[in-house]
């Protein structure tokens, strides 16, 4: 079986699990779990605060009740999306365009619900970027999409040849431009045949990629087994502490992604008159920015709750889990209350204030997970998930 890294190499600097590769040890460069007299840590040592007996059940629930169902839902929504684009291209009309846009919105939401998994199969073969290339700060992907449309590049109409192109032209942000960008209404007419065909090829590739990821997680001897059965021969997690670190890392970096890639890009100076940068927000053309933020946060809350991650805490630290759950409830409710086009949110002073509070609460949640939860189970001494110290 191929060894799945807990996190992609390009993110090693920011992850606790990176230390496993950098230091060549099951411990964080000897800092987190070394004894006070600087002796080498016992290779069989498990942090005394970690309730390791609960770890197998926690990891099993994370895989079987959250991750696997999430990828199945993603596969189902992308199948509907591909079908809707095929129907639109076969019989262009405003009604079929509306159906395609509705299927796109469903796919955005299903992806938001599983996007927090940035480990394992999704990180192979650039699958993450093939589904969603974002952020695109210099607009390079947009320029490539516009060039394809302007030149009517026939190789963009076939899924196989499209897949060989830049990942920036084959994911959800590219399809959003096809369906909502300048000239998008043409896909409801015969004149938009090329544009629609390109969108259909994107939808097919997104479906194929989603199916590949789902299949990898369903494989009986694949990454799911590695998550659920830590051990010395496990290519992902060699012991309970590594597995707990990996799960906490998924939660921390999921929240971190919401903060850094979903909210901060458009919130800059958001409380100033006319402040904010709505066109820096993900899915701003389709008005799905806050739906994605809400979906991300709800999914992370579900991972924390359904997995029962709080069971890893010692008895005298159970209040930490309750505090984290309360924060998750606060941020998810706030994001859902702001679920409208980001330009509307930023143009409304009251909504901007709510958005700023949401941003602050996300920051607090990140700190609570990273320091309070991690510290309570003995995983973050000498290492910060959030800043890569």
How would you characterize this protein structure?
This protein has helices spanning 18-22, 55-90, 94-112, 127-131, 140-151, 159-163, 172-180, 193-218, 223-228, 240-267, 289-307, 318-337, 342-347, 349-376. It starts with 17 loop residues before the first helix and ends in a 13-residue tail after the last helix. It folds into two domains: 60-218, Up-down Bundle (A middle domain of Talin 1); 239-376, Four Helix Bundle (Hemerythrin (Met), subunit A) (Up-down Bundle), CATH 1.20.120. With 389 residues, it is an all-alpha fold. Helix 2 (55-90) runs antiparallel to helix 8 (193-218). It holds the Pfam family Peptidase_M75. It is found in: Cell envelope. This is Imelysin-like domain-containing protein.
The number of distinct structural domains comes to 2
In DSSP terms (H or I, runs of 4 or more residues), the helix count works out at 14
Poorly predicted tracts of residues: 1-39, 381-389
Basic shape: globular
CATH architecture of the largest domain: Up-down Bundle
**Mind telling me the CATH superfamily name of the largest domain?**
M75 peptidase, HXXE motif
- Average pLDDT taken over every residue: 86
CATH-assigned fold name of the largest domain: A middle domain of Talin 1
């Amino acid at each position: 079986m191929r060894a799945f890294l807990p996190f992609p190499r390009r993110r090693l600097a920011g992850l606790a699990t990176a230390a496993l590769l950098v230091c060549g040890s099951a411990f964080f460069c000897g800092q987190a779990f070394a004894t006070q007299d600087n002796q080498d840590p016992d290779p069989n040592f498990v942090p005394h605060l970690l309730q390791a007996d609960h770890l197998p059940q926690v990891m099993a629930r994370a895989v079987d009740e959250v991750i696997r169902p999430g990828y199945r839902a993603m596969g189902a929504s992308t199948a509907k999306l591909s079908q809707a684009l095929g129907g639109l291209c076969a019989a262009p009309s405003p009604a079929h365009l509306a159906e395609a846009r509705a299927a796109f919105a469903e796919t955005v939401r299903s992806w938001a619900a599983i996007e927090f998994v940035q480990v394992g199969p999704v990180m192979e073969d650039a699958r993450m970027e093939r589904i969603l290339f974002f952020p695109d700060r210099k607009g390079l992907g947009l320029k490539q999409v516009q060039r394809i449309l302007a030149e009517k590049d026939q190789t963009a109409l076939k899924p196989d040849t499209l897949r060989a192109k830049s990942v920036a032209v084959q994911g959800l942000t590219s399809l959003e431009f096809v369906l909502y960008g300048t000239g998008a209404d043409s896909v409801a007419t015969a004149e938009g045949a090329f544009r629609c065909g390109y969108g259909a090829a994107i939808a097919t590739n997104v479906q194929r990629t989603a199916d590949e990821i789902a299949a990898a997680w369903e494989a009986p001897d694949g990454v799911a087994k590695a998550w659920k059965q830590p051990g010395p021969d496990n290519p992902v997690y060699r012991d309970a502490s590594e597995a707990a670190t990996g799960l906490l890392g998924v939660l921390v970096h999921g929240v971190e992604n919401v903060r850094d890639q979903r909210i901060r890009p458009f919130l800059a100076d958001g409380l100033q008159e006319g402040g904010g940068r709505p066109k820096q927000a993900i899915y701003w053309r389709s008005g799905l920015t806050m739906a994605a933020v809400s979906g991300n946060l709800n999914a992370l809350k579900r991972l924390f709750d359904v997995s029962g991650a709080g069971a890893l805490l010692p008895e005298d630290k159970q209040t930490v889990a309750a505090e984290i759950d309360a924060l998750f409830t606060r941020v998810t409710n706030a994001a859902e209350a702001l679920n409208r086009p980001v330009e509307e949110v930023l143009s409304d002073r009251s909504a901007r204030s709510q958005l700023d509070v949401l941003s602050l609460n996300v920051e607090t949640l990140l700190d609570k997970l990273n320091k309070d939860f991690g510290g309570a189970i003995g995983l973050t001494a000498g290492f910060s998930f959030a800043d890569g110290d």
